Amino acid sequence: MEIDSVRVESSLWIGNKRYRAFLSGWYFSWTEIDKRNREKKTSTTFIIVLNAPEFQNCGLVSVPVSEVIGVKEGRVEIQTQKKVEDTDLDFTLFYVKRNRRVNEHGLSWSLGRTQFCCPSRGVRDQWITQLRTALKTHSPSRPHRLLVFINPFGGKKRGKQIFHSLVAPLFELAGISSHVVVTERANQARDYILKKDLTGFDGVICVGGDGMFSELLHGVIGRTQQEAGVSEHDPTVKLQPCDLHIGIIPAGSTDCVCFATVGINDPVTSTLHIIIGDSQPLDVCSVHYQNTLVRYSVSMVGYGFYGDVLAESERHRWMGPLRYDYSGCMVYLCNRSYPGLVQYLPADSHISSPRDKTRCLSGCRVCSESKERLFPHFDSSSSLYSTNVSQYSSELEGEWVTIEGRFKCVSLTCMSSSCPRSPKGLSPSAHLADGTADLIIVRETNPLGFLTYLHRHTNKQDQFDLPFVEVHRVKAVRFSLPPGEKEEEEYEEEDDREIQTSAERELEDPEKLSSSNIAGHSQQHLAGWKEKGSETSRLKRQGFVCGPCCTKPRSVSVWNCDGEILPHTEISCRVHGQLVRLFARGIEDSKMP
Ligand SMILES: Nc1ncnc2c1ncn2[C@@H]1O[C@H](COP(=O)(O)OP(=O)(O)OP(=O)(O)O)[C@@H](O)[C@H]1O
Ligand SMILES: CCCCCCCCCCCCC/C=C/[C@@H](O)[C@H](CO)NC(=O)CCCCC
Ligand SMILES: [Ca+2]
């Protein structure tokens, strides 16, 4: 029997109203049929009708089976699963409910619940069996077991509370088991994913902000490359796409990755996307310094203003999420600009453009069509990536373009990077999974001009329609300093001694060893700490740690890579199309009813 040709149908009651309910292919639907007989709960039959004609009625409620969260016996309370009344005739359906849109951006989801009363226990049991079978058939990619990392100190420090009060009850309702790790130090989640046995887990989840997401990103990419024998340090290598899905429960300061992939930073909405096993591929940008991987980024690699804001904000961590607003004002008042040489490899301009005024929404055509271009050897029948292809990427072929000058900021973003501060983001028409990033260059301008640019991130005006701003859709970028400003590798003797001893101390203590924020492995750790120290002393020399009162002009800024300061200035970046997958589906179209 073909399940698609089966239709399950019967009369059911919701409260004291009688409904005709039917399960047909991908949908479970119900519609009120007989208002006059609403008190008569007898003589109803349970039938399975093959290829029955569609039931036409207004007031029809239809729930896609793929959006059913669970089916429970009895009358069950929302979330707590506390049974109010356990009768033989009732079952409760939990499903995704779309809330009324409050703004033009994200659409929040909540848990819908409907309690049905059946004419007999037999009918009730058949409905439960049929619905659960349909769920298994039509929603095969749901996770069953998840590894959850909670950062208790992220954002407003509400990570644990958010997980236990909002997320865990929904996982339980959906029959998902989870192993929870409350982190005790930075990079614990990354190291866990890199080193521990992950057998049986269908995904990894972070409860935190963009920094926590970044840990999972580095863990998942690093582990996949280790297992595939691919060197992450080689800037030309083709990285292996990652199968293990990442989920984000937003509990951070910016939550940019969550906002840009879901449209809203709401823990319940994100939990429901995880439960139904949504899958959103995501482009990732690798950042190299010479032949060493520095970090990966999905959101923003930014030099100048955004680097300075991050450096300044580190001094004001105690302010919580407000530190970025405060630092933004301070850095704006400093009115700095920096010299540099930017080189980029343009993406194919026939496919899309950063100024085409389109938005990457759920089911985006540009992103789906990119899959074939990005993975020409992908076998969709087996879902396998062929191993019989070159290890090196042909993506780096093409003519590089050079731009030289003084810049307020240089930003590269693989996605729109929308966040609550800027609901349309750094590049509103960027795509989540097209294998390209947008390079935004803001040349030196007067303070009012730059304020106009920043302000346009928050309203409907085009932030690229300014004479000192240019934007390019690219596959790779290189940045270098003018000859007179080359990176200083030496650092002060005093700092050197201090760094050497702290690095040596760490080498003696293996627990601490893995806590460095610098990408790389243990043998590079000492070198890594030296780099980190030189970065600190460089920042000190440049006066970032003195704040805007400092009068000395500075000619070198720092790179902000998804909220982390990079230890190098002359970097090269490359986009890896659809390298990872999130439990998300992109932003749902605001024009949908
Ligand atoms: N237990 C911990 N103690 C200290 N730092 C931690 C711990 N767990 C995680 N971290 C680190 O804290 C950093 C910030 O965390 P997170 O991203 O969750 O919050 P946030 O900075 O407030 O949010 P956002 O990144 O969105 O601005 C992360 O880079 C992460 O590596
Ligand atoms: C007159 C009004 C002016 C308002 C200006 C608003 C401009 C906002 C642009 C939004 C850019 C978001 C870029 C995303 C960065 C994240 O990867 C990163 C990690 O969370 N956050 C920061 O670096 C935190 C630093 C964010 C700097 C704002
Ligand atoms: Ca992209």
TrEMBL record:
Residues 486-497 have a biased composition (Acidic residues). Residues 513-525 have a biased composition (Polar residues). One of its GO terms (biological process) is ceramide metabolic process. One of its GO terms (molecular function) is ceramide kinase activity. Transmembrane segments: none annotated. PANTHER family: CERAMIDE KINASE (PTHR12358:SF95), SPHINGOSINE KINASE (PTHR12358). This is Ceramide kinase. It comes from Anabarilius grahami.
